[in-house]
Amino acid sequence: MHLELDINVNNIPGIYNSHLLRYYAELDPRFPALALLIKHWAITNGINDSMNGTFNSYSLIMLLLHYLMCGVKPAVLPNLQYLFPHRFAQFVNLDTLLMNADIREDLPQRPPNTATVGELLVGFFEYYATFDFDSLAISIRAGRVFHKSELAQNQQRYCIFIEEPYDFQNTARCVRHIEPIREAFRQTALALKHPNFTLHDIRVNPGTDEVE
């Protein structure tokens, strides 16, 4: 079994992020399933390489979270930082972070999203194929997109801006080459319009698990 791990040393926001992502993954199994597919797609399309000016893996997860919160109706995931600031805000003491609490009963009632993993994957690519990265920034914390003109002057220069949920910096600051990213989203969204497309046509390998 091959297992990759990230070791966190003196990176406090990283601990909060891991805590937040764990709860999102627990709320809906479609989120981690989609994350694996999208990461593989990005690798095979050459846009998951922060050393060479494209996305790091964390930014891909943030793109997916934004889509599941704001890009599909009804939303797949709620905004946990807004609903539970006492659990997911940046001022929560690290010693009090709860890793196994069940928050489902505390969630407000909302209409369910019954889309399959496959349907959500199609929607993800269609959403970002037309997303205006030049003008808009993404905030998971606020659960919205906003115009880059609202950013500090030194942050408006980035090709893509995805706000880190805890230190508010740009998780996509490594992106220097936006055209390959745009083209990958566009070509994938176009391929998905073919009535007989498969995941292999869009350079995604689902492995042994069936994706409906």
From TrEMBL:
Protein's name according to its UniProt entry: PAP-associated domain-containing protein
InterPro entries named among the record's database cross-references: PAP_assoc
Residue ranges the record marks as coiled coil: none
One Pfam entry name: PAP_assoc
PAP-associated domain: residues covered: 117-170
Species annotation: Diploscapter pachys
GO MF term set: metal ion binding; poly(A) RNA polymerase activity
UniProt keyword Metal-binding present: yes
Keywords linked to the UniProt accession: Magnesium, Metal-binding, Transferase
Gene3D superfamilies, A to Z: 1.10.1410.10
Keyword Metal-binding recorded: yes
Signal sequence region: none
GO biological process, one term: RNA 3'-end processing
